[in-house]
Specification:
172 residues; mainly alpha; 0% strand; elongated
């Protein structure tokens, strides 16, 4: 069984809650890494200490496992996500809703999103939507979510070097 706060792929947590936890971990990791990196680059001891503490508070190993090789969303998952979006905003009549959903599904599929990117994007759209969002808003949010995930993967690769540099500067 996973420790509290630990990220696992075989979680019994509902998928939406799991993706939310991953999104929260990514959101916590990115600024922590940036603070550490900036502290090292600018030789600011306080930022290095704060960055190290913040990075160590994130389940980096779990995050690495989950972001290592993210599966692409299937056609069914894309259709379900678009259907949920239409169902909860309900500002379109039946015919317009069906046309919008088919078009939205095609545009999302053209982006070839990861499952996690799609889940994060749909959550962001649903939290921000007061009315049915435009296809452009959905795609823009999806691209931002995928960019955040790519950025987190890249920063995870660079993290060991920045940790070593910060520790050397602080202890040397």
């Amino acid at each position: 069984m996973a420790k509290s706060g630990e990220l696992t792929q075989g979680s019994t947590v509902l998928p939406v809650q799991r993706e939310r936890r991953i999104a929260d971990a990514v959101a916590a990791f990115l600024p922590a890494y940036d603070k550490l990196r900036d502290g090292v680059m600018e030789r600011r001891a306080s930022d290095m200490r704060d960055g190290l503490a913040a990075v160590r508070a994130v389940d980096v190993a779990g995050l690495e496992r989950l972001l290592a090789d993210p599966p692409r969303a299937t056609a069914v998952e894309i259709a379900e996500a678009a259907g949920v979006l239409i169902a909860v905003t309900k500002h379109l009549d039946k015919t317009d809703g069906e046309i919008f959903q088919r078009t939205l599904v095609q545009f999302i599929a053209d982006e070839q999103p990861t499952r996690l990117g799609l889940a994060i994007a749909m959550r962001r759209v649903l939290l921000a939507a007061k009315f049915t969002p435009s296809i452009a808003e959905v795609i823009e949010t999806l691209r931002a979510a995928e960019s955040d995930l790519r950025s987190a993967r890249q920063r995870l690769e660079w993290l060991p070097d920045h940790v070593k540099a910060a520790e050397a500067l602080l202890n040397g």
